[in-house]
Amino acid sequence: MLGQKPVRAVGLNLGLRLYLVLVAIFLPTFLSYYVYTIRTIKPGSVAGRKGRKAMAPHINFWLASRGINIGLATRMYFGDEEAANSDDPVLNIIEQPERRKTLIAPRSERDGAVVYTFDIYLQGDRETVFFDV
């Protein structure tokens, strides 16, 4: 990771230094999964527009790939922000509580570092919620 240029994720305009490695570009198309790593500073809550409720800390993702004609927009919320997540206006527009869980990355620790694991599924039972933006 060291020595790589910071990359700005679409929709993430927080002035953070974001390091992004997408292995998907180099993997053969017959593989069913790809690996990515983002090292960043955890964002804080975001003020809602026009006096609306504050949004829970999150990171926006916009996915584009060969074979997908439009970009797919989603969010990753942090699993250790239960109170903020339960009050988030965007999470609460998702009618099925089980589907909301596809946007919440559980927290763990690896080698003393905090890690949030966010798996993105394009289809199937665990398909990630995508937003029509």
Structure, described:
This protein is mainly beta and 133 residues long. It has a single domain, classed as Aromatic compound dioxygenase (Protocatechuate 3,4-Dioxygenase, subunit A, Sandwich), CATH 2.60.130.10. It has helices at residues 82-87, 97-100, and strands spanning 19-22, 36-39, 58-63, 72-78, 104-105, 107-110, 113-116. The strands form 3 sheets. The chain has a 3-stranded mixed beta sheet with strand order 3-4-5, with no helix packed on it.
CATH level-1 class:
Mainly Beta
Taken from the alpha-carbon principal axes, the silhouette is globular
Q: What gyration radius follows from the Cα positions, in whole Å?
A: 15 Å
- Sheet with the most strands? 3 strands, mixed
- The total of beta strands comes to 7
Instruction: Note the gap between the termini.
Output: 31 Å
CATH level-two architecture: Sandwich
Number of domains: 1
Q: β content, as a range?
A: 15-25%
How are the strands ordered across the major sheet?
3-4-5
Q: What is the structural class?
A: mainly beta
The ordered string of helix (H) and strand (E) elements is EEEEHHEEE
Number of helices: 2
Low-confidence residue ranges = 1-31
Query: Residue-averaged pLDDT, rounded?
Result: 77
What helical percentage do the residues reach?
Answer: under 10%
CATH topology: Protocatechuate 3,4-Dioxygenase, subunit A
CATH homologous superfamily descriptor: Aromatic compound dioxygenase
